[in-house]
Amino acid sequence: MALRTWSNWLDTHLDPKKTRIFFISLSPDHKEGGDWGKTMGENCFNETQPIMEEGYWGKGSDIDLMRTAQSVVQGLQKKGLNIKLLNITQLSQYRKDGHPSIYKRHWVPPTKLELANPVQYADCIHWCLPGVPDVWNEILYAYIRYKT
Q: Superkingdom of this entry's organism (predicted)?
């Protein structure tokens, strides 16, 4: 419903000859290591390599929602709007190694209990820089700079 409302607003309020629109999908997490062969309940802690399986989608991503977003974007394109869907969701699914894990900056240093139990305390939602968010920005920049 939200995507359709957004689509209707864009269709009504924007001049397609003057406007370029970018829809960036959701950032995924890597909280369930069972998705890539670890024991269920483990997460991104100590991951150092990306997932190499082509077409990989983690269980935390809503593929139906992605299809709906793609359908809405295609509908706007058929109406003449210059819109691009940047699917950072699947792109970022591959990078289980790109989270700060327990090494993010905390307001206070992690306790011994937190360091001893990284499965419970690791941050597998946010991203490290440089890394994954930089690629999102580079893709957006390429669309802005080089695509018409």
A: Eukaryota
Given a contact cutoff of 8 angstroms between Cβ atoms, the answer to whether 47 and 118 are in contact is no
> Both tokens of residue 18?
């003057």
Q: What are phi and psi of 60, to 5 degrees?
A: -75, -10
- Could you report the per-residue pLDDT of 67-95, keeping only the tens digit for each? 999 999 999 899 888 889 999 999 999 99
- Contacts of residue 63, defined as CB under 8 A and 6 or more positions apart, other chains included, come to 57
Q: Which two tokens stand for residue 128?
A: 């490290």
Give the whole-angstrom CA distance, residue 101 versus residue 97.
9
Bridge partners for 85 per DSSP: 23
Place of tokens 């940047």: 86
- The token pair at 38 is 């670890």
Reduce the DSSP state of residue 43 to 3 states and report it.
coil
Report CA torsion sign: 69, 34, 50, 52: negative
Which residues are CB-contacts of 35 (< 8 A; sequence separation ≥ 6)?
58, 59, 60
48: buried, middle or exposed (CB in 10 Å: 19+, 13-18, 0-12)?
exposed
SS3 of residue 82 by DSSP: strand
